[in-house]
Structure formats: C-alpha cells, structure tokens
C-alpha cells in the first residue's frame, strides 16, 4: 500500500523504536508533515515492541539496532516470526555490519542510516509499506561482499551452506537463474535484459521465489544464493 494524498487511502502507520529521545523526536518531526504517513506510537527499547505493535498496529516499524535492554535485532526476529508482522526498517549508524546482516536475515525489509536525508526516509517507508525492497542493487552488492568476506573458509560442513543448497534444489532451472541474478545484485530491468524476459515476468518470478523459499524479500534471496556458494 502506498497511500496518496487526496485518494482517501489510509496513511502508512509508523512505530518509531529508539532509545534516544532526540532521535525519536526528530523522526516524528520529519514524518509529521507527510500527509500519507502517520506516526502512531513510539518505544524506547526492544522490550516494549510487542506491546506497542499490539496497541498501535503499525504497518512499518523504524527499529534502532543498539538499545540497552532488548536490542533491535532480537525485537526484529521476534516480530518477523509472528503472523501478520509489520514490516521493519532498521536504523543504524553503520551500513554493512554483522548486526545489519542479522536483521536482514531475520526478515527486515531494509535499513536506513541515521543520517539519511528526510525525503529518502519517507520514500523508504512508502516502499516498504508497498511490499518493495528498499535496498538498491548497489547496496545489495555491498552487503553480499560483506557476507562473502565473512564466510567460513575452514574445512568441514557448513550448515548454512547445506541449508541454502537444499532450498535452492527445489527450484526450477529458470527460477534458479533468476535467484542467481538477484544474488548478483541485479535489478529487475537488468535481469529482464540478461534472461530475455519482460520486467513483469521477472517480478512474477521473484514473487514465486519468495513464496517457494519462504522468504520476505529479495535481499534474503541474495543472501541465500551467496550462502549456497552460487555467486
């Protein structure tokens, strides 16, 4: 859903979770002037998130990673494991650290640096509410590079790689080609040109991948492909 001013559609409901009151106030101020976005509540720690989500029914949660009692990673994992979970956008001061990767593996739809320009924050919220990925192919490539650099190189079985290969074995040849292209950080238009498809067909394949692999977004597909060692 991407409500437009004047259409009568409901605004995107946002819950802000951050232990810094100034950050919460700044985000509330930024979003307060946007007609198709509404801040419905705030929380200062991950421990407060389940009750806040229950009370405010947000569409999108802006989630800080580092909080003193229950961090944003644990809160994200708890949320995304629940049925009808809101989408999560992680707030961080780092752009590709292990904690961001853990949040993305748990199902966060993307992340925002805390110094992201206000217009980009608003656009990211709209995209996440519409069910779209918020990471550009360039950012996806950067994250994947980080994953690859951190991958274990020792001898022995890698349970994450075994799991990824098992999941990908259930795909058709064409689905696998699309998954690998996503893992390479390609956009839908780039995949369409490379595999001689329409962009609409690529979108349909990506949606099918998410369903068959039981994943939330294309970033998780890219991580799975790299876990399997296919890129």
From TrEMBL:
InterPro entries cross-referenced by the UniProt entry: CheY-like_superfamily, NreC/VraR/RcsB-like_REC, Sig_transdc_resp-reg_C-effctor, Sig_transdc_resp-reg_receiver, Tscrpt_reg_LuxR_C, WalR-like
Domain of life: Bacteria
PANTHER family named among the record's database cross-references: TRANSCRIPTIONAL REGULATORY PROTEIN NARL-RELATED, TWO-COMPONENT RESPONSE REGULATOR
Modified residues (4-aspartylphosphate): 64
CDD domains named among the record's database cross-references: LuxR_C_like, REC_NarL-like
Alphabetic keyword roster: DNA-binding, Phosphoprotein, Transcription, Transcription regulation
Gene Ontology molecular-function annotations: DNA binding
Location of the Response regulatory domain: 13-129
Gene Ontology biological process terms from the UniProt entry: phosphorelay signal transduction system; regulation of DNA-templated transcription
Name by which UniProt lists this protein: Two component transcriptional regulator, LuxR family
Ranges where the HTH luxR-type domain occurs: 164-229
């Amino acid at each position: 859903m991407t409500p437009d001013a004047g259409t009568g559609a409901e605004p995107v409901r946002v819950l802000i979770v951050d232990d810094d009151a100034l950050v919460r106030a700044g985000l509330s101020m930024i979003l307060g002037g946007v007609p198709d976005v509404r801040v419905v509540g705030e929380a200062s720690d991950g421990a407060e998130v389940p009750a806040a989500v229950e009370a405010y029914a947000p569409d999108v949660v802006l989630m800080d990673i580092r909080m003193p009692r229950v961090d944003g990673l644990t809160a994200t994992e708890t949320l995304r494991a629940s049925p009808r979970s809101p989408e999560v956008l992680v707030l961080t001061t780092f752009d590709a650290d292990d904690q961001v990767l853990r949040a993305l593996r748990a199902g966060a739809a993307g992340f925002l640096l805390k110094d992201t320009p206000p217009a980009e924050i608003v656009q990211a919220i709209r995209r996440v509410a519409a069910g779209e990925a918020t990471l550009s192919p360039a950012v996806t490539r950067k994250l994947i590079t980080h994953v690859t650099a951190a991958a274990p190189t020792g001898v022995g079985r890698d349970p994450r790689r075994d799991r990824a290969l098992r999941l990908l074995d259930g795909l058709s040849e064409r689905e696998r080609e699309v998954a690998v292209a996503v893992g390479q950080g390609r956009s839908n238009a780039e995949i369409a040109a490379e595999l001689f498809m329409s962009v609409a067909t690529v979108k349909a394949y990506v949606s099918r991948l998410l369903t068959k692999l039981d994943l939330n977004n294309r970033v998780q597909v890219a991580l799975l492909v790299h876990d399997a060692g296919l890129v």
